[in-house]
Write a structure and sequence with these properties.
With 435 residues, the chain is α/β, with parallel strands linked by helices. 36% of the residues lie in helices and 25% in strands. It has 13 helices and 16 strands. The strands form two sheets. Strands 7, 8, 9, 10, 11, 12, 13, 14, 15 and 16 form a ten-stranded mixed beta sheet that branches. The chain has a six-stranded parallel beta sheet with strand order 3-2-1-4-5-6, with helices on both faces. Helix 1 crosses helix 11 and helix 4 runs parallel beside helix 9. The longest helix has 21 residues. It is elongated, with a radius of gyration of 24 Å. The protein binds L-homoserine. L-homoserine (HSE) binds next to helix 6. L-homoserine binds next to helix 6.
């Protein structure tokens, strides 16, 4: 049996999870692959850093270059994270012709194009299953299982922290800030939580999925991104009354406009309660993938955690081992640029439906003033909720809006905000019907 030697940089929570999973099922993998996988070196921050599973002491080093420069190591697993030293490590390993397996979504999001170019130049591969949706094999599915498909739409609940917070807000009728504080106290949310709750982690992930699905590396600056800070209890309640749930969705959708392209975005979205994604709760992730040939498919699982991530990392290690076994002649490459004119459609040009909550003075003529502005912009209102209030007080006014471009909606809302009867910045969420 052939042998493939592994080096790992990062021996904390995820790294020790990978080592433990390999100890548990490495023999099984060898039987399935016909290749024996052997760890040769693991670079760690310090020998004594706390790790949930032990790593054999004789493998440890604090010098990552020992991993990258070891001529006997065929595959380097990068689990350091971030976009700084991790980039140097990945480029150094690729330059030495080693296949790299990474879980680093931030790195791919910021430098994916450069890294894949470096991989192509060196003839090595760069695998990244663990970078999106943890243990869900979404990358391999898009790349191989759905190789015969175009992707009209991919909708992902790709951030477990946001999904946990939104699920609890809905279930408990709680406010965002209270659930966030509690989630941080119990270790379900990072401190500071910005990367997750401002949508950037989801931005990295949907950017990677969109790039793979559409064959050009999506520049993360072009991904319209909104987090969940503006979702409040009152919007959860009105959404529920209207038959919807609010989820943070990563969306990658083909847009057939005059100038076709792809919508790539992240924002809190009202989705019908009857849609399968509405029942994905807690820290779980899910991806709803529409293929032009296969139709609708759904993936569900843990998007983070040492064991789920280890499962994804080892699946990449298996692919890397098969590349080496077969001289990389027979496999679909981890990323293939094939759409040379691919483009991200600007958010202003995207058409969607909307939920809008105004805070208005409760007096005759207010709704008429607001609807006149929408009418002048040729934006249609599909339903209205206005709970009974006391004359002269501020009350919520909820409108559901028919299809309109984001530009038209943005301009209309700016005009409405200037009406003296409108007492606060309108709250606007997009509505997805999955048509
Ligand atoms: N922080 C991420 C999440 C997991 O909450 O889903 C790592 O990408």
């Amino acid at each position: 049996m052939q042998q493939v030697n592994l080096g790992m940089i990062g021996g904390g929570t995820v790294g020790s999870g990978v080592f433990h999973a390999w100890q548990t099922n490495g023999g099984l993998m060898a039987a399935r692959l016909g290749v024996k996988l052997v760890f040769r070196r693991v670079a760690v921050k310090s020998f004594d850093e706390p790790r949930p599973y032990p790593i054999a002491r004789e493998l440890l080093t604090t010098d990552w270059q020992e991993v990258v420069n070891d001529a006997e190591i065929h595959v380097v697993i990068e689990l350091v994270g971030g976009t700084g030293i991790a980039k140097t490590m990945v480029l150094a390993a690729l330059a030495r012709g080693k296949t790299v397996v990474t879980a680093n979504k931030a790195l791919l999001s910021a430098h994916g194009k450069e890294l894949f170019a470096a991989a192509a130049k060196s003839g090595a591969n760069l695998y990244y299953e663990a970078s999106v949706c943890g243990g869900i094999p979404i990358i391999k599915s898009l790349r191989e299982g759905f190789v015969a498909n175009q992707f009209p739409a991919i909708y992902g609940i790709v951030n477990g922290t946001c999904n946990y917070i939104l699920s609890r807000m809905k279930a408990e009728g709680a406010e965002f800030a209270d659930v966030l504080a509690d989630a941080q106290k119990h270790g379900y949310a990072e401190t500071p939580p910005d990367l997750d709750i401002d949508g950037f982690d989801a931005q990295h992930k949907i950017g990677i999925l969109a790039s793979l699905a559409h064959g050009f590396w999506v520049d993360h600056h072009q991904i319209h991104t909104e987090g969940i800070r503006d979702v409040s209890k009152i919007d959860m309640e009105f959404a529920e009354k209207l038959g919807y749930t609010i989820k943070l969705l990563g969306i990658a959708k083909q847009i057939s406009a005059k100038k076709p392209g792809v919508q790539v975005s992240v924002y809190p979205t009202l989705i019908p309660n009857a849609h399968v994604l509405a029942s994905v709760n807690g820290v779980f992730n899910a991806c709803f993938v529409q293929g032009d040939i296969v139709g609708d498919t759904l993936f569900y699982g843990r998007g983070a955690g040492k064991d789920a991530t280890a499962s994804a990392v080892l699946s990449d290690v298996a692919d890397a081992a098969l590349d080496l076994k077969n001289n990389a002649k027979t496999r679909v490459l981890p990323f293939v640029a094939h759409a040379w004119n691919g483009r991200v459609v600007p958010m202003d040009d995207i058409v969607s439906r909307y939920y809008v909550r105004f805070s208005v003075v409760d007096k005759p003529g207010v709704l008429a003033k607001i609807s006149a502005i929408f009418a002048a912009a040729k934006i249609g209102i599909s339903s209205v909720i206005q709970p009974e209030g006391h004359a002269g007080e501020s009350v919520p006014l909820i409108l559901m809006i028919h299809d309109a471009s984001n530009a038209a909606m943005r301009k209309a809302l700016a005009k409405i905000s200037r009406l003296p009867v409108v007492k606060a910045k309108p709250v606007m969420f997009r509505v997805e019907s999955f048509d």
